[in-house]
Queue: 3 jobs
Job 1
Amino acid sequence: MPRAKQFDEEEVVEKAMTLFWRKGYRNTSLTDLIEYIGINNASIYNTFGGKKELFDRTIEHYRKQNYEGMSNFLASQHDIRLGLRSVFRKIIMDDWKDEDKKGCFIANTISELLPHDPKLMGIIQSYRKDVVKTFQSFLERGVKDGQIPPNKDLYNISNLLYTLMMGLKIEAKSKLDPEGSSLRVDMVLSLLD
């Protein structure tokens, strides 16, 4: 009879995500994971299949957590420009306060492991599609409410908002200037005028 797990699988994924996010996939050894998470090698293999499979779970966890947080926030906003400014201000301030200067886990993964990993490529393309669709739905609501002129190319503006978001996250790995970043957000949002 197999032994019962002595750990919470989601807690392990969360901890592994933090470590991979700080160090990257290649710079995180199995020994690092075992020490940081506090479970043994056999548990990692038996539960997740190995380091790579655990990494894939952490990316999926980050994608879901990040997307749902943004989506739920935007769904609660009534003022389109203020809602978007608030999303980007949170991104800027969270990254500015991050002492580890981790940037975006997805952007880090793109630069470290893509384009040579089809599974990760699928996760990341799905994330982009979901975020762009959420931005576009939010902007369409603004058109219906009369907050945005109806002649705007909402699909391309939504893609630009995604690109801005990822760029701010990458910029966060260096010395981030919150005021300069906020000005760039305002410039992009002026496309909605």
Job 2
Amino acid sequence: VALLKSMGNKVLIVDTRKLTLEKEETKKLWNEWRNLQRFGNPYKIKALIEISDEKLVFGAATHLSVIPYIIIKGTLYDPVTSLGIQIKSRYLEGYRTQNVIGFVPGTVCPDSFLVYAAHYDHLGTMGRNTFFPGANDNASGTAMMLGLARHFSRNPQRYSIVFIGFSGEEAGLLGSRYFVDNPLISLSHIKFMVNLDLVGTGVDGITVVNATEFPSRFELLSQLNDSGRHLKNIKKRGKACNSDHCPFFEKGVPCFFIYTLGGIAAYHNPYDRPETLPLTAFEGLTKLLIAFGGKQ
């Protein structure tokens, strides 16, 4: 602390390669400390530079850093005494966007609902020349949801089926949180919700988040996969607040978040392009979700 206080008006360089960030507790402490400097700047430093071996990703935010924060890949870093960088940024406060919602009325219980959802937003551009296509994250999930909507519009089920394209996911699940706070249908009438995010690969099958929270539904999904031979593997995972299912789960709505495994690992960078996606499990997962919806 004394050292930091003496660094006022200077640039602080932190080499996180030495912090053993594979330990979750260490990573949590570092994230909290870093954000304190970025958004509070208690020691009045001019900028924060992190030297990291972590994968570099671009992201969206709902608030501004009060100081420049720069991450440099460890393999490219040479100790420097001066650094020049010029960035023009504009913060769009109160930027408006929207969720896109449709539904197919149920034939027997129209006031009870199944929900298939996917976020359709991504990261857009950085500067004039860098574009983030977001093919896997999450054009893949959006396309699968639209395919399911086409199928169920031609084949209505006992329950009404709602399809939601969320916006604002990348900035902090904003669209899904808005929906559960301002629901257009009663949340207590949702029989089940399936969130599709990152479903463009699948050579190693899928992971189901919340599988351990809703074991009977996971068992049904597994049985349907075994009988239909849709996917190579279905891996179970516990709860995790890492996509648009989370606000629903927090409100007591039973739900899964499904993503595919294996294949390209491009994430939040310009290499997440449609031509790189194998779509290995796309057809199989679509068929499995159709069967799953028909058994609710």
Job 3
Amino acid sequence: MAARARPVRTYQTGQVVVLLRWTTIVATAILTVFVLVRYPSMPQRVPTHFGLGGEADAYGPRWTVILLAAILTAVVALLAWLSGKPASFNYPVRVTEANSQRLYREGERMLAWTNGAVWLLYLGAVLAILESGSGGVVVVAGLIAMGIVLIVGIVRMLRA
């Protein structure tokens, strides 16, 4: 069924998804403000790439931190907005009247949790740039979370 011909969303978003969506937005705003406040005290050259061991192996100008913050803030905002529009998603199964609400709910959940994983990646990148020893661990946690969210979300959609 084409996205514009799909059934209208009728279910109410769960409290956990609403809380996750807003928590991610607020946490992203706080992290972005933190980056902006710390920006003047950052060195002129900052790490821009890290090897598998977590050691910086490339450096770039300080303004790349602002670019990172802008891109990831925009991604989080876009994913939060899109997660509320599940009728427009692509699904791994055909959307019918019978399964539409279950698919929409699972699609919305998956995108909200994906957004949380994106925030973890953002936090890890900021920590790594500020040369905190935990940055690499947080990035790895974000990548693992992203993989788990996508696998669980797709399986749940296939079962819807």
